[in-house]
Amino acid sequence: MTDAVRELLKAHLKQLRLPAMVQELEALSREAAASNQNYEQFLLRLTEVELAARATHALQSRIKQADFPVTKDFDTYDFTAMPSLSKPKLLELARCEWVDQKINCCFIGSPGTGKTHLAVSLGLAACRSGYRVRFFTAAALVSHLEKAQQQYTLDRFLSQLDRADLLICDELGYLSFSRGGAELLFQVFADRYERSSLLITSNLGFGDWGQVFQGDRMTAALLDRLTHRCEIFEMNGESYRFRESMKAKKGRKTG
Ligand code: ADP
Ligand code: MG
Fold first, then answer.
1. How far is the CA of 111 from the centre of ligand 1 (A)?
2. What's the helix, strand, coil split of the chain in %, to 5?
3. How many Å apart are CA 190 and CA 218, to the nearest integer?
4. Which of 116, 148, 202, 227 could form a disulfide with 173 if both were Cys (CB 3.0 to 4.6 A apart)?
């Protein structure tokens, strides 16, 4: 390739919005010449690079959009600390077929047992599988809904939530809501029924959800929809954090 041809080609690629091809053109064309690739092979390599860059950007933007509070993945979760939890089952969920099937998922149990950790891990897995995910704590979601209602932007916010293939609602039960807040949250959950997945973590067993949703009728209606097709994990036991800090203390005493 002469310099003039290369510069013109780069300008065309840029105009066609193929930045990774622009960036890799020189290296790949050197590589093609050195390994005697034909034109088609060279073009194939070049387009592969663009597609790979696009997939990476799309994933990064899905993760950003999800707004996870921390980055946690399955590889750092110690399944031996929670023997009641089936590792194969969880790794099966990491393949995200449940999101495709619009099934729900609940992690119920005491604090510090890794509910948020696993919710984020499953959310990341869904992003990697190409799904749109949104993560909220229950309190943040309710306050967002109430604010949107006051500002007459509720429909817009609800349709944003609707676009998410997986909505994660973390820490349901730590705070109770006003009647209006509970009704809005109920509306969001009920709207997703059989249309898109919901992942909820809670320190409260289902029998105590009436405290959050105020009123047994609303709670029963919600639980009926939520648990109809739902993977439920009970996560009870000692807090992992607490156990680790006790271990560290013991280590310092004996060490
Ligand atoms: P929960 O949401 O159930 O209150 P978290 O997911 O916030 O608990 O866990 C508290 C901390 O302990 C986090 O830093 C989390 O990564 C860690 N943790 C909890 N359980 C485990 C585990 N089994 N293996 C590794 N880290 C864990
Ligand atoms: Mg948590």
1. 9
2. 60, 10, 25
3. 10
4. 202
Task: Spell out where 75-155 has E strands.
Answer: 104-109, 133-137
Q: Give the residues of the chain that fall short of pLDDT 70.
A: 254-255
Q: Which pLDDT score is estimated for 8?
A: 95
Helix or strand holding residue 230 (H, E): strand 230-235
Question: What is the pLDDT at residue 124?
Answer: 98
Contact 187, 148 (CB under 8 A): no
Question: In terms of pTM, does the model score above 0.70?
Answer: yes
In the reported structure, the alpha carbon of residue 97 is separated from the centroid of ligand 1 by a whole-number distance in angstroms of: 25
Q: Which residues line ligand 1 (CB under 6 A)?
A: 72, 76-78, 81-82, 111-117, 240-241
Overall size of the chain counted in residues:
255
Q: Among 177, 42, 203, which Cα is nearest to 111's?
A: 203
pLDDT of residue 254: 66
Give the count of beta carbons closer than 10 Å to the beta carbon of residue 187. Answer: 13
